[in-house]
Give the backbone structure.
Amino acid sequence: MTKSPDRSAHALSPACQLVAAMIAGTLSTAAIAAGASAGYSGLFEVPDAETQADGTGTLYYSHAAPSPRFEEGDYYGFNLGLHPRVELGARLTEADGNANNPTLAVRDLLVQLKVKLFERAGWPSLAIGVQDVEGNELFGATYVTSSWQLGPLKLVGGYGDEGLEGGFGGLELTPFKWVSVVAETTTTGERAGLRLGWSPRPGWHLSLLAGHDFEREAELGSLQLSLPLGSPRPPAPRQAAATLTPPVAAAPASSPDTACCAEAEAALRAEGFDTATVTPTPGTLRATVDRDRFHRAAADALGTALATLDQHAGPNVQTLGATTSDEGLPLLTTHVDRESWRATAPGSDGAGLNLSVSRATEAAAAHSRTTLVLEPNLVTFYATEVGVLDFDLALRARLEQPLPLGVAYLSVLTPSVRTDDFDDGGVYAEDRPRTGISQAYWQLPLKLSTNSLSLISLGYQNLYRRDFGVLQSEHLLESADGRHGLRMNLAGFVGSDDNLGMALLDYRLRVPEWQWIFSLGGGRFIQGDTGLRASAERWIGDTAISLFVRVEDQDNMVGGISLNIPLSGRLWSGRQFEVRGTERWTIDAQTAFNSADGQNNVRPRFLTEPRLDRNLFDTYLDGGRLSPVWTRHEPWRLRTPASR
């Protein structure tokens, strides 16, 4: 809703102007998603029709009264803006039974989903939602809800079954943007309180919700932190004009401009590229660079290279080109019309770029220096039947040594800091990484054809605290634009006590228009179990939200939510030494389907695929995003590199 202008404020006293400004700001309060203590967007236990903003996430802790069967309990969870008008969350509930159910103590994991069906300015919004539809379903509910924003007042009403037990309603009055009054009624009682909010920086919001349950005479509270999950796509995105061939203008008759090449190469190295080669042709200047500094997203490497070339290219250069590589393996080439590059402002959606993207075919130079990388090694499990957030945190030192053929890697882990469940005898004891050498292997990346990549690995891996010799062959075959792909992973693990093996095949579909990657596949997994797996992965900048399901048979199925976050980029780099954050930290919440006892039994290794530090799809192809079709649909990423 647009701010209501105060046309007479100039004639008022300063005090009246301040009051008028507050009222004007109040009347401009748009319908926004505020977290309920129950986790979804809403009041206390009442869900409204708003959803978490697309590309944002909320972490929360709540002290609440879960249902009439329980005394006061605690909620721990997160809520995610999965897509416009869609929010998805997971919550762990800890509560004890009331006087009528003294033995009813619970630790329950549930998943929540809400979809907004209708939204129009000045009209009530409509949404439907479900939660806790599998497992013991202690807090299961299906509901329809509506909310209507009338200036500073939001009215909520709806109907639910099971946990919500009938009709519900409520209101939220926001006299100032940092405080609101919340009240609600359900069939289980009435609740009221205050919500305080503070935004320390754009996109970040901290809120405190405190109130009272009049039916159970219980105090309620919730602390919530909302933040962006990644670099948002600029407004009004649309696909850039693109072909699979460079949009090179008519080449001038003059010879290539070679004077700027040395200067451009020096500038690229100053930007952090370990290798950089600039090649001139008539009307075109192209750079071939490694993407090691930009280990989270090679699109940032391409964008930085193009911007650097533009600053140093001569006046006769009409087309800028950049090719990115990894360990000498050519990956992707981008060409852009220089005039359109200069006409497109950083921070825009990049739709004006006259852009082409294709697979790289020319050989690239690999860096020759020995590199020591220090990074955290973080293993976590969240919201299982034990623990709230179990973790094992160590420091990993990885030595990378280029060889005449391939690259050698050595990873060493320091002693860790961890929760009790990772100690000996704990439920995650076998999943605790062992101090000392964790991996030592040689890898050879190969480009068999324009659209085919392979990665051969041979060496040692400590897996589940046991030593194995490893031979692994990973292959990827994709369509010309990269929208479709087949990935095969064959691996053998030879140990002193037993041998393990994997044979997996997956199909992947990239839909960059929606920023989704869908996957379906299966085979034989590391524990010898066979089955199918499927996932739907939404990318927000460099952060991924994934929905997954794994199926062995009718009685053995799990599904859940996974959040994949890059903790930081390169923090410091010298000639042969660098410090950086974890490339990918994954936290997930999963639940069992159709289990015989109705419980969410801990199964951290069910249908799993352990991977080396560097693997083909995640490392070389940025989790699947490094493809012509994805890069063409994110031209803004080239013009405004997120990690530069």
